[in-house]
Amino acid sequence: MSNFNLKKPYRHFLDLATLTRGEARDIIDKARALKIIATETGHGKGFIHPDRPLADKSLAMIFEKPSTRTRVSFEMSIHQLGGKAIVLQGNDMQLGRGETVADTAHVLSGFVDAVMLRADSHDSLLDMAAHATVPVINALTDYSHPCQIMADVLTFEEYRGPITGKKIAWSGDGNNVAVSWIHAAVLFDCELTLACPKEFCPPTQVMEWAANNGGKVTLTHDPAQAVEGADCIITDTWISMGDSDIDARIAILAPYQVNRKLMDLSNRDSLFMHCLPAHRGEEVTGEVIDGPRSVIWDEAENRLHAQKSILIWCFGK
Ligand code: CP
């Protein structure tokens, strides 16, 4: 996606596929450094970065879908960096009554310094970015969820060191989170094997993009094959926001549940990750998600530190 409307060094954060490997690495390293600063001050949740790198910056956060982690982590992030957030529900805006995304982008660009959008449609995000003159951040669309995966990579590396060369396994729906993991596998040069039923595979063009960019990304229909030798197993809810045919989806995805038997086929010290919210007994058993190899609470907290790094990167700082 072009950054043509933006004054350098401002940047949109739309997808991991639009980043260079160096940019992705810098965002992770900066997130780790920001976490250390926040942790070492001992101020806990009341932490404010001593340099206030985003002092006087404002962020409009638009939600067309519900959110817990994304909303709270972004609001706390900009606050702790010295800026201010305005939370907007899509249905409470004129956007929900038919005002165009383009007009909304023009108007918001006059009020705030950045826009974060959780959109029903990825096209809305691209439309916002094409017409805004301030940075636009993808806070989840039907296509991808790049902010989440930056927190996931940060979490993996905290536990297991550099992710490059490691083996990551995905079992379940080849959804928007899986798409961003495919992008991440290319950027961070790790192996990724996805086990998905034929009905819910990731988009073919994303798999082709990975292959054309040197990615070690494999698709199988067999979860046991995917997790063999894996350092981390990841899944996500089978019922994403807006999905229908719930019973049919559950029946098709049932063989892809992450349970102890599947975890035992991976490396002995493999981690379990899930972006949450989770449905225990569906995509993962309670025994796994609440067990000793699960790192979900650190993964959730790391949204805060990853978000700060993404915001700072968008502002070119
Ligand atoms: N993982 C994630 O994006 O969580 P929320 O939907 O609660 O923001």
What does this structure look like?
The protein is α/β, with parallel strands linked by helices and 317 residues long. It has two domains: 16-144 and 301-314, Aspartate/ornithine carbamoyltransferase (Rossmann fold); 148-299, 3-Layer(aba) Sandwich (Rossmann fold), CATH 3.40.50.1370. The chain contains twelve helices and nine strands. Strand 1 (58-63), helix 2 and strand 2 (84-89) form a beta-alpha-beta unit. The radius of gyration is 19 Å and the shape is globular. It binds phosphoric acid mono(formamide)ester. The site of phosphoric acid mono(formamide)ester has 8 residues, from helix 2. Phosphoric acid mono(formamide)ester is lined by residues 67-70, 140, 148, 275-276.
